[in-house]
Amino acid sequence: MTKPRAIVFDWDNTLVDSWVCIQESYNMTFRHFGMPEWSMDETQANVAASLRDSFPQMFGDRWLEAKDVFSKSFESIHLAHLRPLPGATEMLEALKAQGIYLGVVSNKRGGFLRKEAAVLGWDRLFGALVGANDAEADKPAPAPVRLALNGSGIEPGVAVWFAGDSPIDMHCAVNSGCVPVLLRSEPPRPGEFDAHPPVYHLENCASMVTLVRTLEVPISTI
């Protein structure tokens, strides 16, 4: 119950509202292959892993073609759909002002991630923005978390929180030895986080700021 030295955030649907964009990008890809399209419920249930981890199973030998189609589809629409979640900017600025190191680990391709951060003016707030293919393995592997903290002087551990909206984020937190924090308005569904339960469930960005402000500074940093 101490103040974190660093917080690593997921990106999509943790800091920005991405579901409509993600659904349309997948359906544009499915249309290319003559496959059934996904509803929003199906999109939210099936999208978590990076393309290099999920597309070989979904598209078989044509997964590299599917990756190119998806990437071009996403690139054509993602900035038009880019919307920060309520209070996200204020949360990031408040945490940064408290001296907390901020990073991002996402399974969105790194180039897209950093472009979105720049458009929002958030790139100045993060020490690192790590996307898919930037590290030797993608989330839930610990490699991207280590990369996000590289150069900060902070090692993965209990002084680092990993905040996200999905089971793969909590899994990544546990794999990295960090504190898993669920940041979303929707309560956990039965059994959703049985394998890797969050330490905290925060319903919105303001709740994150409130919680951090109530915690004691670790003795080692005083």
Looking at this protein, list some descriptive labels.
single chain; alpha/beta; Rossmann fold; DNA polymerase, domain 1
Structure commentary:
The protein is α/β, with parallel strands linked by helices and 222 residues long. The protein contains 9 helices and 6 strands. The protein folds into 2 domains: 6-17 and 84-221, 3-Layer(aba) Sandwich (Rossmann fold); 19-77, DNA polymerase, domain 1, CATH 1.10.150. The protein has a 6-stranded parallel sheet with strand order 3-2-1-4-5-6, sandwiched between helices. The longest helix is centred in the first third of the chain and has 15 residues, at 19-33. It is globular, with a radius of gyration of 17 Å. The mean pLDDT is 94.
> Architecture of the largest domain, CATH level 2?
3-Layer(aba) Sandwich
* SS-derived structural category: alpha/beta
User: Could you list the spans in which at least 5 consecutive residues all have pLDDT below 50?
Assistant: none
Q: What name goes with the CATH superfamily of the largest domain?
A: HAD superfamily/HAD-like
CATH topology descriptor of the largest domain: Rossmann fold
Question: Which strand-content bin applies to the residues?
Answer: 5-15%
The tally of beta strands, per DSSP, is 6
Order of helices and strands: EHHHHHEHEHEHEEH
For the sheet with most strands, the description reads: 6 strands, parallel
Short description:
With 222 residues, the protein is of the alpha/beta class. It has 9 helices and 6 strands; from the N terminus they run βαααααβαβαβαββα.
